[in-house]
Amino acid sequence: MGRRTRPDPSTRLDLAAVAREQLRAAGLSASNVSVAELCTACRTDLFYSYRKEGSRTGRAMAVIAIRPKSPG
């Protein structure tokens, strides 16, 4: 899952496909999952990209959590 066959010997991993599959396996409906088709290396005006900017870049962190249902 998530691996694409390519003519070159390098191995690639489709992280979006892996995340979608993990969310689906956890019970989320596909209609509740979306993927931003943005490239961090291409859009350094929006994101930090160590791939593009090397050690000159800033830092970012993300947290995802499930909020418990409110009583009532």
Could you list some keywords that capture this structure?
72 residues, 2 helices
How many beta-strand segments?
0
Strand content: under 5%
| Rg value | 17 Å
Uncertain residue ranges = none
Number of domains: 2
Distance between the termini: 40 Å
Portion of residues in helices? 10-25%
How are helices and strands ordered from N to C? HH
The geometry reads as flat
- Note the main sheet: none
What does the average pLDDT come to? 81
Helix-strand makeup class? mainly alpha
Tally of helical runs? 2
Overview of this structure, please?
The chain is mostly helical and 72 residues long. The protein folds into two domains: 1-34, no CATH class; 37-65, no CATH class. It is 21% helix and 0% strand. It has helices spanning 15-25, 50-53. It is flat and about 50 Å long. 0% of the residues are buried. The model has no long low-confidence stretch (mean pLDDT 81).
Brief summary of the model shown:
Helices cover 21% and strands 0% of the residues. It contains 2 helices and no strands. It starts with 14 loop residues before the first helix and ends in a 19-residue tail after the last helix.
Annotate the secondary structure layout.
Elements lengths: L14 H11 L24 H4 L19
